[in-house]
Amino acid sequence: xxxxxxxxxxxxxARILDLAEKKKPFFLxxxxxxxxxxxxxxxxxxxxxxxWLQDAFDVPLIVQITDDEKFLWRDIPLDKLGEIANxxxxxxxxxxxxxxxxxxxxxxxxxxPAFYNNILKVWKVVTxxxxxxxxxxxxxxSMGKSAFPAIEAAPCFATSFPHIFGNKKNxxxxxxxxxxxxxxxxxxxxxxxxxxxxxxxxxxxxxxxALQGAQSKMAGSDQNSCIFLNDTPNQIKNKINKYAxxxxxxxxxxxxxxxxxxxxxSSFQFLRFFEEDDDKLAEIRQRYESGDMLSGELxxxxxxxxxxxxxxxxxxxxxxxxxxxxxxxxxxxxxxxx
Length: 338
Ligand code: TRP
Description:
Elements: E1 7-11, H1 13-21, E2 27-32, H2 41-57, E3 61-65, H3 67-73, H4 78-93, E4 102-106, H5 107-110, H6 113-125, H7 128-135, H8 143-147, H9 149-153, H10 162-165, E5 173-178, H11 182-191, E6 201-205, H12 233-243, H13 252-258, H14 266-274, H15 278-289, H16 295-317, H17 322-329
Parallel strand pairs: 2-3, 2-5, 3-4, 5-6
Antiparallel strand pairs: 1-6
C-alpha cells in the first residue's frame, strides 16, 4: 500500500520513525464510526494497513468506535448503534488484531475521568469560530456536533488511557486513517502544544474506488458500489462482472487496436490495492494497455484477488465471538512496558 502510493500523505511521520529507530515508545490510534451491516472493502483498508504497522513496530494500538458521533449525525437510536458497533468491531477484529496489544472501545462505554479530562482540555482551547472554520458547523447544527471533535482528539493523548500507559504523559501517537479525517487532527495538532502534549503524527490513505469508477469512492449506502465483508464469492464475481467500470473499448476489435485505460478501470484499481506482486501488476497493465488483455480477462484477475482477500477475512470473522468483543474492550494493561 505504501509502494503503490495508496497511503500517500503524512504529518510528522519522520518523528515517529526516529522513535522507532531508537526503540522509544509510541502508539497507534485509529477509529471507525459504526455503520450498519457489514464493513466494506474500503473501510478495511486503513485497518489492514494498521495491522501491518502494528506487526512492523510492535506497539500498542487503540481503536475508537464513535457510536456517539453517529448518534449525533444520523437518525439511529443509541441502543441500535451499540449493536451495529459490535458487528463492526467483529469485522475489525477479523483483520487479525491481538487483544493483548489492542484496545477497542466504544465512546459511550469507555467515557471515564482520564478520557473526559482530556476532552475538557481540548474544549477549553478550541473556539466555536475555529470549529466552524474547520468543520463547517452552522448555527442550526446541534451543540453535540461541535462538541464531538474533541472526543476524536482525546485518544491522541496517552493520558486518556492510564490502564495502558500508567502515568506516562508524553507518549506520541501515529494515526493511520483515510484523508477525510485530517480536519480532526489539524485541530488536535493545533491544540496539543497548548495542553503541553505531543502532536499526533498521521499517515493518510486515499479511498478505494467504487465499482462504478476510479473517480468515486465505495459508499455503504449504495449496495452496488461496494464489495462487503460478508459478500459470497458469487456475489463478488457478479458485482465485478456487472458493475465494475471498464476502461476497455466498446468492441473487441477496437480494444485490440487501441488498448484499455487502467487509470479509470475499477478492476485494475482493485488489483492496484490488493495484488502484492509488482511485476505481475506491471505485466497486467502492459497487456491491458496494449490490447492484448480484454476487459473480461482483467475482471477475472480482479475477481480472484478480491475473493481471496475477502475469503481470508471471512475465515477469521467466523471465529470471532461476543466474548472477543468484550475482551478487546476490557480496561486492562496491554502487553507492553513503558
Ligand atoms: N470519525 C471517524 C469515522 O467516521 C471515526 C474515528 C474516530 C477515526 N477516531 C478516529 C478514524 C481516528 C480514524 C482515526 O469513521
